[in-house]
Structures are given as C-alpha cells and as structure tokens.
Amino acid sequence: MTLLRVARQAEVGEGQKVIKEAHGRKFLLVRVHGTVYCTDAHCFHMGTSLAGGDIEDSGSHACIVCPAHRYRVSSSKAD
C-alpha cells in the first residue's frame, strides 16, 4: 500500500468531515474518538459525494454512510 500525505491531522476536528485533493484524487477525512480515518470522497458504487453522509463508529473503524443509497463505506486509519 502506498501512503500519501493529504492533510495534517490537526486540520480534522472531532466529528468533522474534510475533503482534500492529492495526486488527482479527492479524499474524505473524518475524526472519530480522536482517530483520523480516510477514504475516497465519492462512493465507489454510484459516485455520490460522501461529504453529506453520516459518520458511524463501528468500534474498530469509522464508516461513512452514503447519502444516496445508505451504503456503508469503510475507512482506513490515517497515520
């Protein structure tokens, strides 16, 4: 897996969603219980922006719920 720097962790507040662009891609970052998670900014199923989606804490990671069709998109911990 290739790591990309897309933002500083300090730019993402608790419960906040931040969209950043890096290397021609848009990423959505969220902070849940102090941990920053990152995923693509758009749902891979329908291409809908995930910025308007709800954040769910699954315990081991954060999920973004797609506002278009309620699909849960898993995110990865951003180190």
From TrEMBL:
Keywords per UniProt: 2Fe-2S, Iron, Iron-sulfur, Metal-binding
Xref: PROSITE patterns: RIESKE
Cofactor(s) listed in the protein's UniProt record: [2Fe-2S] cluster
MF terms in GO: 2 iron, 2 sulfur cluster binding; metal ion binding
Metal-binding as UniProt keyword: yes
Pfam families assigned to the protein according to its UniProt record, in alphabetical order: Rieske_4
Domain Rieske: 4-79
Annotated protein name in UniProt: Rieske domain-containing protein
Organism this protein belongs to: Auxenochlorella protothecoides
